[in-house]
Design brief:
Blueprint: H1 26-30, H2 33-58, H3 65-69, H4 72-89, H5 98-126, H6 138-161
């Protein structure tokens, strides 16, 4: 506690100055994570390309609507990881950068939409859509709508609160 320490004044009371309101040690926090995201983006891109090629080109006459609908899973995951990797790559996130706010909004939106798609597809697959039955009943469609709405609202509320 000397006079040169910036936290203490001459009379011994503590004072501090807030320099940043954003993360400034990005290399330490996100350095090891970013290559993992890039690798996952590449892996999901390969999965999406192979799935689309298999479903729509190679086996186009033998695929069911459920298999075509499941194309949304790797594509949504690819977009989710790519936007998150772009967001992490722009660290530090100063509050004044308007473009990062749009990137954060895109990240939040794609996570919300992707989670809604995952649960909706898993619900209709568990109901036997396109395997046992080829149409949803009115009750199943109502439950699907409620599940999608609840998922979308819960994720939106979570991201708005944080």
């Amino acid at each position: 506690m000397n006079g040169t320490d910036p936290l203490y004044t001459k009379n011994g009371t503590i004072s501090a100055v807030l320099d940043h309101q954003f993360i400034q040690y990005c290399d330490t926090l996100f350095g090891p994570i970013l290559p993992v995201y890039y690798t996952l983006v590449g892996a999901w891109a390969v999965i999406a390309i192979v799935w689309v090629a298999w479903t729509y080109v190679i086996q186009k006459h033998n695929t069911l609507y459920a298999q075509k609908a499941m194309t949304l899973i790797p594509i949504a995951k690819l977009f989710e990881l790519a936007i998150t990797a772009a967001y992490i790559a722009n660290c530090p996130w100063p509050p004044s950068m308007q473009s990062l706010k749009y990137l954060d909004m895109a990240r939040i939106s794609i996570v919300t939409i992707a989670s809604t798609i995952y649960l909706a597809l898993f619900y209709i697959l568990c109901q036997g859509w396109n395997v046992i039955s080829f149409a949803l009943t009115r009750d199943q469609a109502t439950y699907l709508t409620m599940i999608m709405g609840a998922t979308y609202l819960s994720y939106s509320a979570y991201f708005l609160s944080s």
